[in-house]
Backbone:
């Protein structure tokens, strides 16, 4: 009965409906590390190997450094307890297992307390490049290395704290865009060029090439109000990426009060994902070819 109830609740939220393990009130579950099958570990290895070949020279230095110091390797799906032990010492973060997407307020509460909710399941061999819900590869390979960095750790915690407030103010969509265009799809300038720090890119074989090398997307200097007003794509590559000059830029973002910013942009027009504005600091103007071709099909 409890199982049915949970799956009913999950469906209502559009959340992990096929997951059968009962979750705690805070939506966490046991990772159940010993239950992963040989096939599941093999999917991890496939994803790990191809991404590890691709990321040198593409992922930012902080990502590479974080990865180097974590118990994340090709052989097995990482154990969350082992990850938490290392993270806790470095930045005070933990990784907790969840069935998939969790309700916004639950998600924010975990982040506000420096617990990163990670999907415990792994994608199937036939869906290596596309999945709707964050799985263990996206969450652990993409996000956890960045949580070894104190600035990112503080920034993501601030997002959790800000999320609860934004929800009350009815501006969660604005805050979610900031998260999307930084934590998930952010690019950063480093000494030898543009690099990836967003987990959505770092965990995607195809997008880690598209975001940096393709002529199609726009790459625009990050501006808080601009990003808050910009819609994003959840089903495909981004049409625009926003670029910070340095990860420390996020430190300032973690500290400022967003309330006056929400107030300032209230009622102003919103921008479509591919729009370029006269006021933008354009690093590269995209051809738009990729998304235009898709439309024609
Ligand atoms: N749940 N597990 C998980 N991971 C997310 O990234 C996540 C979530 N629930 C809500 C959510 N993200 C976002 O929609 C909020 O950041 C707005
Ligand atoms: Fe994510």
Residues:
């Amino acid at each position: 009965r409890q199982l049915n109830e949970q799956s009913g609740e999950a469906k209502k939220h559009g959340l992990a409906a096929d997951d059968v393990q009962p979750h705690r009130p805070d939506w966490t579950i046991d990772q159940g590390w010993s239950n992963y099958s040989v096939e599941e570990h093999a999917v991890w290895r496939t994803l790990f190997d191809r991404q590890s070949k691709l990321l040198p020279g593409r992922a930012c230095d902080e990502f590479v450094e974080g990865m180097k110091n974590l118990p994340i390797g090709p052989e097995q799906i990482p154990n969350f307890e082992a990850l938490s032990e290392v993270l806790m010492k470095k930045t005070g973060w933990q990784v907790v297992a969840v069935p998939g997407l969790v309700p916004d307020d639950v998600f924010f509460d975990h982040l506000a307390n420096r617990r990163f909710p990670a999907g415990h399941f792994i994608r199937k061999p036939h869906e290596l490049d596309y999945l709707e819900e964050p799985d263990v590869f996206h969450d652990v390979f993409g996000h956890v290395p960045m949580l070894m960095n104190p600035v990112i750790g503080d920034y993501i915690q601030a997002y959790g704290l800000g999320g609860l407030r934004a929800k009350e103010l009815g501006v969660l969509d604005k805050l979610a865009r900031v998260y999307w265009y930084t934590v998930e799809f952010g690019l950063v300038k480093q000494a030898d060029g543009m690099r990836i720090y967003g987990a959505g890119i770092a965990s995607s074989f195809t997008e880690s090439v598209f975001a940096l090398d393709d002529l199609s997307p726009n790459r625009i200097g990050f501006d808080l109000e601009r990003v808050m007003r910009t819609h994003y794509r959840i089903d495909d590559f981004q049409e625009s990426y926003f670029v910070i000059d340095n990860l420390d830029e996020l430190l300032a973002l973690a500290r400022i009060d967003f309330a006056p910013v929400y107030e300032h942009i209230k009622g102003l027009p919103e921008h479509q994902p591919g729009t370029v504005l006269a006021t933008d600091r354009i690093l590269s103007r995209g051809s738009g070819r990729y998304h235009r071709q898709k439309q024609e099909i």
Q: What stands out?
A: Confidence is low (pLDDT under 50) at residues 1-17. The CA atoms of residues 105 and 167 lie 8 Å apart. The longest strand covers residues 94-98. Strands lie at 94-98, 115-119, 187-190, 193-196, 218-221, 240-244, 282-284.
